[in-house]
Amino acid sequence: MSAKGELRRLRELEWRELDIKEAGSWPWSLQFICCVLLLCLTFAGMHWYLAAPAAEELEQVRAEESRLLRDYRSKAAQAANLEVMRSEMENLESRMRTLQQMLPTGAEIPALIDDISGTAIDNQLAIDFIRLRAPVEREHYVERPFDIQVQGDYHRLAAFLAGVAGLPRIVTLHDMTLAPEGDNGQNLRLSLLARTYSYRQDEEAP
């Protein structure tokens, strides 16, 4: 049958009277169109139920691949600098041990105060008092403050401060005040707050 005849049959077809049970008697062009539509719907359904989840999983895998590549590059860079980082860590640990050795333990505080008193006497200063305050607990260390008040001339007081700062144990000086003592104006009274520190691990070990 010619194409013109098929077109005529399609135009003359009563669409409302079509019955799926009689599809075998439909015009072949209509059957062809229905087959094409059925195939399209089948492929669309297969894509929806099969291909779409696979595509989503593929995107997740690609994202995971990107993350793993970033991690790999980061760890590769760290591995390349591993020896340098180890050397720096060893230097830091060595400095930490040196600083810890400069921190007195609680039992060494009296000896430290004796050293400060000796420094004042060596510089010919009069000691009014060296008085301990209550220790202050910090997260990693114990702060041990004490008040110092001495008298002498300006140069001897400066030498005393330099001597305290040069002690083998760490001592920090705070809140320093100078006031004249006597009528000649040469003698001065120095009051200050000093702090030394103990490492918490040393305190907890006994």
TrEMBL record:
GO process annotations (BP): type IV pilus assembly; type IV pilus-dependent motility
Record-annotated membrane-spanning stretches: 28-50
Pfam families: PilO (PF04350)
Keyword flag Membrane: yes
Stretches of the chain forming a coiled coil according to its record: 55-102
UniProt keyword annotations, A-Z: Coiled coil, Membrane, Transmembrane, Transmembrane helix
Identification of the protein by name: Pilus assembly protein PilO
Organism name: Halomonas urumqiensis
